[in-house]
Amino acid sequence: MGLEEKSWSILGTPFRCLGVPPEDLPDLEALLRGFPPPDAAAETVDFQVEREEGRGLFLSGGGRRWDLAGTTAPLSSHLEYRLVDEAIRLASDRWVLHAGAVAGPRGTCLVIGESGAGKTSLTLWLWAHGGRLGTDDLCPIAHGSLMPEAFPRALHMDAEYSPRLMAKIPPRPSSYPADYYPFPGSVDPMPPVRDLLVLERGPRPEGEVETLRQSEAAHHLQKAIIMNPAFDYGDALRDMLRLAAGCRAYRIRASTPEGAGERAQEILNAD
User: Fold this and answer.
1) How many domains does the chain fold into?
2) How many angstroms separate the CA atoms of 171 and 60, rounded?
3) pTM
4) What is the tens place of the pLDDT at every residue in 23-78?
5) Contact (CB, 8 A) for 102 and 123
6) Same domain, 109 and 75
7) Is 88 within 8 Å of 228 (Cβ atoms)?
8) What is the pLDDT of residues 10-23, one digit of tens each?
9) How many Cα atoms are found within 13 Å in the side-chain-facing hemisphere of 174?
10) Fewer CB under 10 Å: which end of the chain, C or N?
11) Would you report the helix, strand and coil content of the chain in percent, each value rounded to 5?
12) What is the DSSP string of 77-91?
């Protein structure tokens, strides 16, 4: 079956990829396997891979076109990135936060922080210690209801991670794309957000914890939203203030993933 007959629904938008070389199909299907197929009658957004003699490989979709000549990343990961990027651009009924999300004893815990702070490590640590993974990177939050959604993209793990964490993660299947792991969660509904962890790098290995006020929590949530053409600052701020009002919020400073993880577990297990 060619990829022309396959499609995926990402953030409510149906996508289809056409013209993908057969050798790249298995990796692309692996990266997108967590996303459901759209309704058969749904109108899809098509992405087309084209090889032009003497000019190289091109990708078009969403009214844009990219020259893939000289791209070092595999075609499958490039396509997956473009599909997700376009889905975020078209999302009009969800806020998409750059955040990890794990369902715990009280509800969903969001993990946010600056790039490189260790969000993925902390999110996976909480999953490896009993939480249900919703996403390690992008968390959709529905407008109005503020309910979080699972975002089942493959885990992109191409950096150094704690040996204690890696010991708890199942080995990557030998046939799976390099630097990626299968999404280990489910697309079942996530519970309401009840905890927010803002992660920062700090000097103490064991970690420091500071309680955040509602205004501080809303500020961090607002910063985590990925803006798209439908973004409205006032609407976003109102929703993030409501979201912050319904959850406990903490800043964690730790110099090691283990320190951040242990402090986070203490917070989530507290009454």
Assistant:
1) 2
2) 35
3) 0.93
4) 999 999 999 999 999 988 889 999 999 988 777 889 999 999 999 887 788 999 99
5) yes
6) no
7) yes
8) 999 999 999 998 89
9) 0
10) C
11) 30, 30, 40
12) HHHHHHHHHHHHHH-
